[in-house]
Structure formats: C-alpha cells, structure tokens
C-alpha cells in the first residue's frame, strides 16, 4: 500500500485504529530510524506513524499488461528484481471457459488446478495499465488508471529501480 503525505509518496503499513506507518529511505522531519523487534537498527530506513486524516491520499497499486492485443493481470510483483530479471507473469483462470480457450491459444501453462500462467518479457509488453485503487477514507474517490506505452513504460520501470 502507498500513501501521499505532504506531497511525497511513501510505502505504508496499516497498524489499526486508523493509524498508518510511513516508510522512507530518507529521514524527513518527524521520521525516526526504524528499529526491528530484535532491537536492530535498520540502516537508511525511517518511519513515522500518522492518522489517516493526515494523509493526502492512500492507495493500492496494481497492473495490467497488454500482450497480443489483450489485457492481462500482472501476477508477479512489479519491483526492481522483476524488472532486472525481465520476468513478468500474466495469469488466466481455468474456471472461465473463454479464458481457458485463450490460455490454450496463447500457449499459457497450467500451473495449478485454477490458473494458467505465462512468462513474458519487456519486449512482449505492448502497454501497461497502472491502476491506483483508493483505500480507507479515500475509497469513495474511485480508482485512477493510466496507460503507458513505448518509452513511457521504460521510464516508469526506471523510476521503480531508482
């Protein structure tokens, strides 16, 4: 989950009772160095607890990839590792007759009793849909979607690996 706080984007965890912990690799004003449950200080990790009303926005990120002219849910996480390894896995349901037919047509592999998956590479991705789904007190705002193509995809991936 992600939060916008004072105009900056942070990873965030929900602690309960409308309290969220912002996580940063930069020590902003009011952020304390993170100390894990074993008492070990985490280098370059800083946290700050805030109430939901202090946030500018709170959301989950998900992605869809356009492959062979169709949109698919990205099954793997989109992070620096998957980008570096050029590993993107898309998924279809075995329970849906149309998806089952499509999976066979596009040579997906049946990976368990419910799903078909296929590994694709950056060169195979025609477009990526970035979906921000508002959470908590922001959930009534409706989701935001943007579609990236060509160099926009590469620029977005570069922003993740920075």
Describe the model:
- The protein has helices spanning 80-85, 97-105, 151-161, and strands spanning 2-5, 8-16, 19-24, 32-35, 41-51, 57-67, 70-74, 88-93, 109-110, 115-120, 127-134, 144-149.
- The chain has 162 residues and is α+β, with helices and mostly antiparallel strands.
- The protein folds into two domains: 2-55, no CATH class; 59-161, no CATH class.
- Strands 1, 2, 3, 4, 5, 6, 7, 8, 9, 10, 11 and 12 form a twelve-stranded antiparallel beta sheet that branches.
- Strand 2 and strand 3 (19-24) form a beta hairpin.
- The protein starts with a strand and ends with a helix.
Name its key features:
twelve-stranded antiparallel β-sheet, alpha+beta, 162 residues
What layout of secondary structure does this protein have?
Layout: E1 2-5, E2 8-16, E3 19-24, E4 32-35, E5 41-51, E6 57-67, E7 70-74, H1 80-85, E8 88-93, H2 97-105, E9 109-110, E10 115-120, E11 127-134, E12 144-149, H3 151-161
Antiparallel strand pairs: 1-2, 1-6, 2-3, 3-5, 4-5, 6-7, 6-11, 7-8, 8-10, 9-10, 11-12
